[in-house]
């Protein structure tokens, strides 16, 4: 009989690595959306414009993308843990700068640090989850579902917690960043304790590169296009929806305004757990249609001044985002070879973050001429139209794959 230590120790190491990867993803994504609940308060405190508000959100994305270009593939070579620790450390420093801010320049510096932390840590943490889950289909699905839960529920918890702390706690501008900094420090200690080998199985010593191997390229194009639009909606909502909802509802309560964003993202998380029976490509196609419907409701709510439509609009966009995200990420992590996983996931995050930040800048620029509300509605209409164009193309891909399977002699 084999010694217990020979079987239990690797299993315990894998469990520890899985937990560390999940906790890192959750901590990073909670923190990424904490400022979303506080933009109205920060605008009052520092007196910046709607354009600056959107740029504050987008500047983190401008840092995340080049960081991913390096950190995603680098984790395939030097290991997941060093990149995760660097990312957590940068994000903690960003929290500190936010808490100590005395002007708008401080806020931009904090967002740069947070973007660096996200770019360095997210892809490595996602890859560690998949590395430690086993290479069988069940393990990879568990890793994908855990990652999507950490990302979406983390993004939902961030604004809700920040809104509640700012509205009902002391030091409304600083408290949420202090609390998050403490949580990040705890997660960093957890990552330090993991005994998982630093380099993933099958990795080779090579110059880090970002890229998509030919075997998954067609899958990546479909998943990337769908995810770009889904994350464009999330980015736009995270940057401006609390302010937009405050105007529609006529309230200055930070917790209520942040609750609309939380509802949208939490709905996405719930949908991801209920979408397991859908094929990944079918989830993406149907998600695009639902996403367009939710955006249409938001446009109607603003144009007609119907505040009650905010709830179904948030439910619709959340459902669409959840279907697209869970389908895209599960499909990519399943078909990608382990030794290429960091590079492919890094590439996927680059596309997603371009969606997360690009349309937000468009909202900010349009707000100079049209105002924040009208600019948001216009960009929402454009993104919704793109969803309606892409969805039939994804359905055609499903049909093509079905025909290819029927023609396969095996």
From TrEMBL:
Membrane topology: Multi-pass membrane protein
Alphabetical list of Gene3D superfamilies matching this protein: MFS general substrate transporter like domains
Protein name: MFS transporter
Annotated TM spans: 50-71, 83-102, 150-169, 175-194, 215-238, 244-266, 278-300, 306-329, 350-369, 375-396
InterPro entries assigned to the protein according to its UniProt record, in alphabetical order: MFS, MFS_dom, MFS_trans_sf, MFS_Transporters
Primary localisation category: membrane
Subcellular location(s) per record: Cell membrane
Pfam families named among the record's database cross-references: MFS_1 (PF07690)
Major facilitator superfamily (MFS) profile domain mapped to chain residues: 9-402
Keyword list, A-Z: Cell membrane, Membrane, Transmembrane, Transmembrane helix, Transport
